[in-house]
Design goal:
This is Transposase IS4 N-terminal domain-containing protein. There is one protein chain. This protein is an alpha+beta fold. The protein has 2 domains: about 15-120, no CATH class; about 125-305, no CATH class. Helix content is about 40%, strand content about 20%. It contains 12 helices and 10 strands. The protein has helices spanning about 15-25, 30-40, 50-65, 70-85, 95-105, 110-120, 145-150, 190-195, 220-225, 285-300, 305-310, 320-344; strands spanning about 125, 130-140, 165-175, 180-185, 205-210, 230-235, 245, 250-255, 265-270, 275. Strands 1, 2, 3, 4, 5, 6, 7, 8, 9 and 10 form a 10-stranded mixed beta sheet that branches. Helix 1 (about 15-25) packs across helix 3, helix 3 crosses helix 4 and helix 3 packs across helix 5 (about 95-105). The longest helix is centred in the last third of the chain and has 22 residues, at about 320-344. The radius of gyration is 22 Å and the shape is elongated. The chain starts with 14 loop residues before the first helix and ends with a helix.
């Protein structure tokens, strides 16, 4: 049964499709894919039409050509692999059922391992020596199956016709939108829990900016405890009393959180709202510069918006089992990494 938004396969593969597959192979060369497969114990003990390496490339191609059915993706992948390797490989054209079984055998672990090996911080912009990174999260619609409903859950106020959803949180480098950390979870997992799991990738020398939605300030203490500096937008009702005003227009304040005692912070007032930062001295980060930094992030498309744009409007993931959903989500993050590398 076709899923929402799926197109009929095209009759002819084109050079751009071959180049796109070539980009995936160049970004994730076979030796890197094999290392990710080996470290997760997914290496096959006997020869198959669909060895693990080919299945990894199939998942990436499936996400790249996300509006196409399995048969069309397989033809594009086969044609692209033969073109990229100058005819040295002919994986054949397995059936949709065989591809589904191969994806299930592979699981999400090799895609997660490949992400960990390939998706790292690049040489993006810095602010006064600090590497600029952003925190964001969103949800993705999933096929309505018993296993997806049981594992992920659906929005409580959307009725029985709502799609189940998965949460995804990421840390990305500002400017390049290079995603270097990701977490996936069922919808029932609180958003702040998903975001907190990402903090292990933060550290001194970073300045963490919030993404599209302001984070819960209960995360302030665990985030700042990593040694990273923070610059977050405050909600309208967040109490931030003036303790001391500075010449640049900012002021020191005390932030009330669940950490215990009030936390000393600095507040920068802008036309778009109040910004709260751990950088307490104006000479280290003048108010105008911090406002420009955050305004620049607010006006530009961020990494998760780019990942969502890969899917198109009203898109529903194709995976009908929870393990396949996680595999597919990491596939989209890896494809985003490959395409971003081409643009930069």
């Amino acid at each position: 049964m076709p899923r929402p938004g799926q197109r009929h396969p095209l009759s002819d593969e084109s050079l751009p499709d071959r180049i796109a597959i070539g980009v995936l192979i160049r970004t994730f060369p076979p030796e890197l894919v094999d290392a990710a497969v080996d470290c997760t114990g997914r290496t096959q003990l006997r020869s198959r039409l669909l060895p693990a390496q080919v299945v990894v490339y199939f998942v990436l191609a499936m996400c790249l050509f996300n509006q196409e059915g399995y048969e069309s993706v397989t033809r594009r992948l086969t044609d692209g692999l033969e073109w990229a390797r100058r005819g040295r490989t002919q994986p054949g054209e397995p059936t949709t059922a065989a591809l589904s079984r191969a994806r299930a055998r592979l699981g999400p672990e090799p895609l997660k391992a490949l992400f960990a090996r390939a998706c790292r911080l690049s040489t993006g912009p810095r602010y006064r020596g600090r590497r600029l990174v952003s925190l964001d999260s969103t949800t993705f619609d999933l096929p309505v199956t018993d296993s997806n409903l049981e594992h992920f859950g659906r929005p409580g106020n959307a009725g029985r016709n709502a799609y189940p959803q998965a949460r995804v949180g990421v840390l990305a480098e500002c400017g390049t939108n290079a995603v270097f950390a990701a977490e996936t979870a069922p919808l029932r997992t609180p958003e702040k829990t998903v975001r907190r799991r990402l903090f292990s990738r933060l550290g001194p020398g970073m300045l963490l900016l919030a993404g599209r939605r302001p984070p819960d300030f209960d995360l302030w203490c665990p985030a700042s405890a990593t040694g990273a500096d923070l610059l977050w937008r405050a909600r309208h009702r967040t109490p931030l009393p003036v303790v001391e005003r500075f010449d640049d227009g900012s002021y020191s304040s005390e932030l009330i959180t669940k950490c215990g005692d009030p936390v000393r912070v600095r507040v920068v007032e802008t036309a778009a709202g109040r910004l709260v930062t751990t950088i307490l001295r104006p000479d280290q980060a003048p108010a105008g510069e911090l406002a420009d930094l955050h305004d620049g992030l607010r006006k530009t498309e961020n990494a998760l918006e780019e990942v969502e744009a890969l899917q198109g409007p009203d898109f529903v993931l194709r995976s009908r089992q929870p393990a396949g959903v996680e595999q597919e989500l990491y596939g989209f993050l890896l494809v985003h990494h490959a395409l971003r590398a081409v643009r930069t």
